[in-house]
Amino acid sequence: VQVVESGGGLVEPGNSLRLSCAASGFTLDDYAIGWFRQAPGKEREGVSCINPRDGSTYYADSVKGRFTISRDNAKNTAYLQMNSLKPEDTAVYYCAADWFCTSWPDNGRYIEVWGQGTLVTVSS
Description:
It is built from no helices and eleven strands. By secondary structure, it is mostly beta strands.
């Protein structure tokens, strides 16, 4: 069971970036999947998650209206489209999988499946 992120990088404020999370060893539609992020000196924060089956979503208040999570079951991959990026979005973004999105408002302490992280830097 593994998830692997990609798509991080350096982007100027106001621009967009899309993160991908490829799952292997399990069927994506059977699990909740999403992203956490951790900036230097800050606690880990649940950013966004999409639930299995009904596709209901969770977004942190700080990203609502700017980020969109989606899932392609055929590719067993989830995506996080990040628009109108701000310097405060700078962090390492981690993909994670769990039974449901209930862990995302917390810091994900009980989640067992994590990716290696991808750095997103928003700076001019």
